[in-house]
Design goal:
Helix content is 27%, strand content 26%. The two termini are 13 Å apart.
Length: 169
């Protein structure tokens, strides 16, 4: 396997949040990815919409031979398998959401995929796990580390660790 700078954001706020989070990781590993590291799991408020249901969020680092579009299709299939229903609204509650945050230093802007993730730098629920996992990883567009982006982020959401960091090998 190759591509150690591939990071996937995982989150969800509906149903059995822990079960969906863990099932997503199992399915990711069963579908061509090897998880090599995982951030702590954070509990966070909804971002971009109002919801009483809090999210569980985590970032994993994977190795894979899947190319970016193929990886995206795989993640979307996993979301559907775990009951994700896409809404007309841009932001809404969901069982699971799987986003490719970075695919190494690749910059890609296609109708079906944008890399790095175009809004990750605006979201504490992505930046805080990235800082724990890869503090010195440099964003290929902004040319800033995850620590720098987290310090510059205007999101005031409180992200509370609910499960500690796990190194996976």
């Amino acid at each position: 396997m190759k591509n150690e700078g591939i990071f996937i954001g995982i989150g969800g706020n509906e149903g059995s949040r822990w079960e969906y989070l863990n099932s997503a990781k199992i399915l990711i590993e069963q579908n061509g990815c090897k998880i090599i590291a995982a951030s702590p799991v954070y509990e966070t408020p909804a971002w971009g919409f109002e919801s009483e249901l809090r999210f569980l969020n985590q970032v994993i680092q994977v190795q894979t031979l899947l190319e970016p579009v193929e990886l995206l299709k795989t993640l979307q299939h996993i979301e559907e398998h775990l009951g994700r229903v896409r809404s007309e609204k841009q932001y809404s509650s969901r069982t699971i959401d799987l986003d490719i945050l970075f695919y190494n230093q690749l910059v890609m802007d296609l109708p079906q995929i944008q890399l790095p993730h175009p809004r990750m730098h605006l979201r504490k629920f992505v930046l805080e796990p990235m800082v724990m996992l890869a503090p010195g990883f440099v964003h290929p567009v902004f040319n800033r580390t995850m620590v720098e982006l987290n310090q510059l982020c205007h999101d005031t959401s409180v992200c509370r660790i609910v499960e500690e960091f796990k190194q996976t090998n």
